[in-house]
Protein: Cobyric acid synthase
Organism: Actinomadura macrotermitis
Amino acid sequence: MGGALLVAGTTSDAGKSVLTAGICRWLARQGVRVAPFKAQNMSLNSMVTADGAEIGRAQYTQALAAGVEPRAIMNPVLLKPGSDRRSQVVLLGRPVAEVDALEYGAHKERLRAVVADSLARLRAEYDVVVCEGAGSPAEINLRAGDIANMGLARAAGLPVVVVGDIDRGGVFAALYGTVGLLEPADQALVAGFVINKFRGAAELLAPGLEQLRALTGRPTLGVLPWQPGLHLDAEDSLSLDGPRPDAQPPYGKETLRVAVVRFPRISNFTDLDALACEPGVVVRYATGPGDLADADLVVLPGSRATVSDLAWLRERGLAAAIGERAAQGRPILGVCGGYQMLARHIDDEVESKTGGVDGLGLLPARVVFAADKTLGRPEGGAYGEPVRAYEIHHGIVETEGGEPFLDGCRAGAVYGTTWHGAMENDGFRRAFLADVAARAGRDFTPAPDVSFAALRERTLDVLGDLVAEHLDTEALWRLIEQGAPAGLPVVAPGGVPEVSADK
């Protein structure tokens, strides 16, 4: 079949990733062999495939939605920001360069060729490829070098659906403006819209949809209702700004409180999703010492800029507060970059190039950054429970004492590991939380039957249901099979749609 579709968005975090996952699940249910694809992803949430390649966490989850094995060609280009100006370039799962925004342009032709080849291979192997755009296709300052949005759509002849988040407000202006800012040849591929996160009276929305069609000549293919609790492997920390009603006080004595330090370059915070799925566990994000005051467990998560984020930790007074907690025997967990910060000393000539700096000194360990990145899917155990995880790091931690904890160590109530995803192992998660609760003096008992894998599957099924029930699936099929319809109007800057002359 070889059909394909590009899901673009008016902004980052508009719903592209979840809609792509939903379409993949909807198609897979019908026996369609479908694969996700994101040409270029800028994300600090990543995952390791079975063959040791690093890809965006969202694409990994979309592959699970499609029921296929995640592969590097599903996300051939991954950018991992280390500062406001520099990013690591991961190509087909392996780091190849550290660049700033201007230097990145020199790599574009090479990346464009890899993107085109990856998509062609997927289209040859699968019935349908559902592509996800990056950011917004209307970023006109970046259009000339675009390989992920309309540049990809033009090169591969992909029909485009644009999704907008109505919960942010201004969705009609965003959808109309997205089309209006595109050049005519790009507009010719934009076939319709999807409105995301709608809550309200449908009859009040309907006149706006009619006017949007009159102004652009394009239909709205569906309105997805607000669905709470769909925090599905987010791509960036924008998702942490949204409302999390489950994290609001008051709490009972049986509620276990987890405070996660929100580093400026926080990475792989999807590690905390499995903690949040436990009944009676509240996960909050902390940026100041006061946010840690009533926490039973403080988590230092992953970081793409360990030394820089460690300095931030000290500047904010969080380092001192964490040190006081450790002295009081109150539980602290460091994961990957957070584990490195808990060590006695860090020698970094690779990521920050600052050389030697003192860590927090809460674990008997030293860290040396290596030029080669460690990527893997390790297995082990703790508390008598099996653990399967993944690791992504340049920092090599050498323990100098303490008790073993996964691949890391523990000293008193301070735990450290480089393994991501350990909390997704249900037996280990329950045993760890029971240990934390006992050390914190909290009357909390983990639920005996919560399966994180089953919860993820149910979430993916919900996304598939939303697509099946609220989108014009016949129209989606036509786009996938036939491409964008001919004769779509050009939206002129003045707002008057004109029929394209080349149609």
The chain has two domains: 3-232+457-499, 255-444. The first strand starts at residue 3 and ends at 9. The chain has 15 helices and 29 strands. The longest helix spans residues 452-470.
